[in-house]
Design goal:
Order of helices and strands: HEEEEEEEH
Shape: globular
Strand order of the largest sheet: 1-2-3-4-7
Number of domains: 1
Number of helices: 2
Largest sheet: 5 strands, antiparallel
Number of strands: 7
Strand content: 15-25%
Distance between the termini: 35 Å
Structural class: alpha+beta
Helix content: 25-40%
């Protein structure tokens, strides 16, 4: 169901940002235990449009742009350095990738979203 009122959309976004994003980070931590993926805590003054960000113990970071109208997620990377000092480029393992910011349904289970992120976005 796609929420139609602004109250419904705000409630869906809040639920996604707290429960679902946390479950996605937990599923990523299970998929890649050595990376140490975790959900970043939002700033205390973050407004309701804050997008959840996930980071690893190695400094890799990405955030999920949440579209509460269409229930879609877009994964965006923030460039940083990898443990070996090289610049982390999202989707390093797919050099000819057409889309550096993959989009997926937010209605999937959190573990499926995590697998999609690992497969379509994260470097090896």
């Amino acid at each position: 169901m796609i929420p139609t009122s602004s109250t419904d959309r705000a409630a869906w976004r809040q639920t996604f940002s707290t429960a679902t994003a946390s479950a996605i980070a937990g599923a990523l931590a299970t998929l890649e235990p050595e990376a140490g993926w975790s959900l970043e805590a939002p700033d205390a003054d973050a407004d309701r449009y804050h997008n959840p960000a996930v980071s690893s113990a190695c400094g890799e970071r990405f955030w999920l742009a949440v579209d509460e109208y269409k229930h879609r997620l877009t994964v965006h990377g923030t460039y940083g350095t990898m443990p070996d000092g090289r610049m982390w480029m999202p989707r390093d393992r797919v050099r000819d990738a057409v889309d550096p910011s993959p989009t997926m349904s937010a209605n999937k289970p959190a573990d499926q979203i995590a697998r999609d992120i690992a497969r379509r976005f994260l470097p090896d």
